[in-house]
Design a protein that fits this description.
single chain, mainly alpha, Methane Monooxygenase Hydroxylase, Chain G, domain 1, 15 helices, elongated
Length: 370
C-alpha cells in the first residue's frame, strides 16, 4: 500500500513538473515565433538573391549569414546585427583566401582561425564578431568548394546574407519592452498559481496539494531566471541605443521587479514546505488559507499589469489590505505553528508590495506590529 501511494505521488509530481515546463515552453514560443519567422524569411530571401540575382548556383553562405545575424534574439540593434554579419563575412573571406592560396588541412585550419580571430579583435572589442569570424573560417576550410565557384563567391554570398539581415533589422523595429513583458506575465502567473495551490492545500488540509504547490514553485524557477535575464539585457540595450532610451526607466523597473519576484518565489517555496509539515502534524489553517487566497489574487493582478507595463495599483491596494490583517495572534491566536506560517506570509507580502510599486517603508508600515 505504501509503495502504491508513493508511486501515485511520484506520478503526480511528474505531471506537475511537465505541466509547468509545457507552460514555460509555450510562453517562449509565443514570445519568439515572430522573430523566428522573420529570420527564416530573411534566410530564404538571401538564398534567392544569391541564386537568382548574383547568379551563384549554391549560395550556401547567404542564408547562413542572414540566419546567424538575426536568429531569434530580441537584441536586434543595428550594431549587433552588423557585428554578426561582419563576423561571418570576415571569416568566409579569410577562409576563402587561405584555401585558394595554400589549400586546406590541419595547419591551414589553425592558421585561418588565428588570422580571422586577430582581425575580428582588431575591428571590434566585442566577442560576437570574433566568434563568428572564427566559426565561419573553420566552415570554409573544412567545407569543399563547389565546382565552378570563384575564389570569393562564398564571401559575396555572406555579404548578401548580411545585407538582407541588416535590411530586415531596419524595416522591423523592435520594442525592447515586449519580450520582458511577456516573460514577466508568465513568471508572475506561475507564482500566482503556486500561491493558489498553497491556499487550496491549507483549506483542504491536504499534504498532496501542498506537495504539488512546492513542485510547481521549483519548476517555475527557470521562468523567473529567463525573465530577469531578458530584462537585464533589454535594460542594457536601452542605456546605449539612442532609439531605446525612452524605455530605460520601465526596463530598469522590470529588473528590480524580477529580483523581488524571485525573492517572493523563494519565500513561497519555504511557506509551502512549512505548510506541508504543519498540515501533516494535524493543524488546521482555514483562516490563513483565506488570507493567502487574497495574496494569490493580488499576484494575478500583478501578472496582468506586468503584461502591459501598467501601474499595478489594483495589486498594491489588495496587498495593503491583506498586510494590515497579518497579525499572527489574530489569524491564529492559539496555534504557534500556524502563527509561524503567518510570519512567512508577512515576508512574502512585503516582497510583493515592493514589486507592485510600494516603497520598502510603506510595505513594512502596512504590517501590524508584533
Amino acid at each position: 500500500m505504501g509503495a502504491s501511494a508513493s508511486s501515485l505521488r511520484g506520478t503526480a509530481a511528474l505531471r506537475v513538473l511537465l505541466a509547468s515546463r509545457v507552460r514555460a515552453g509555450r510562453a517562449r514560443v509565443r514570445a519568439s515565433w515572430w522573430l523566428v519567422l522573420q529570420a527564416s524569411v530573411a534566410a530564404g530571401l538571401a538564398f534567392a538573391v544569391g541564386r537568382y540575382v548574383v547568379g551563384h548556383e549554391f549560395p550556401f553562405f547567404a542564408p547562413v549569414a542572414a540566419w546567424v545575424s538575426l536568429g531569434f534574439s530580441r537584441d536586434r540593434s543595428l550594431r549587433r546585427v552588423a557585428e554578426l554579419a561582419a563576423g561571418v563575412a570576415i571569416g568566409v573571406a579569410a577562409g576563402d583566401l587561405v584555401v585558394h592560396l595554400i589549400g586546406s588541412g590541419p595547419w591551414q585550419m589553425a592558421l585561418v582561425l588565428f588570422l580571422a580571430a586577430l582581425l575580428g579583435r582588431f575591428l571590434d572589442a566585442g566577442p560576437m564578431l570574433t566568434t563568428q569570424a572564427g566559426v565561419q573560417a573553420i566552415v570554409i576550410v573544412g567545407l569543399p568548394s563547389f565546382a565552378g565557384a570563384g575564389p570569393f563567391d562564398r564571401w559575396v554570398d555572406a555579404v548578401v546574407g548580411g545585407g538582407v539581415a541588416l535590411a530586415v533589422a531596419l524595416l522591423t523595429p523592435n520594442d525592447p519592452r515586449r519580450h520582458p513583458r511577456r516573460l514577466a506575465r508568465a513568471a508572475v502567473h506561475e507564482l500566482a498559481g503556486m500561491l493558489h495551490a498553497v491556499a487550496r492545500g491549507l483549506a483542504r488540509t491536504s499534504s498532496d496539494d501542498l506537495e504539488a504547490a512546492l513542485l510547481t514553485g521549483r519548476a517555475s524557477q527557470p521562468a523567473l531566471d529567463e525573465w530577469l535575464s531578458s530584462a537585464r539585457s533589454a535594460a542594457q540595450l536601452a542605456r546605449i541605443a539612442p532609439a531605446q532610451r525612452r524605455h530605460r526607466a520601465e526596463l530598469e523597473r522590470q529588473v528590480d521587479t524580477a529580483v523581488l519576484l524571485d525573492r517572493a518565489m523563494r519565500n513561497a517555496r519555504v511557506l509551502a514546505r512549512r505548510a506541508r509539515r504543519t498540515v501533516a502534524d494535524g493543524h488546521e489553517a482555514g483562516t490563513l488559507a483565506d488570507v493567502l487566497e487574497q495574496v494569490a489574487r493580488a499576484t494575478d493582478d500583478l501578472a496582468a499589469a506586468a503584461a502591459t507595463g501598467a501601474d499595478p495599483r489594483a495589486a498594491r491596494e489588495r496587498l495593503l489590505t491583506v498586510a494590515r490583517g497579518l497579525d499572527p495572534h489574530v489569524v491564529a491566536h492559539d496555534d504557534w505553528q500556524v502563527q509561524s506560517l503567518v510570519l512567512l506570509v508577512r515576508s512574502l507580502v512585503v516582497d510583493l508590495l515592493e514589486a507592485s510599486g510600494a516603497t520598502p517603508g510603506q510595505a513594512r508600515e502596512a504590517l501590524p506590529e508584533l
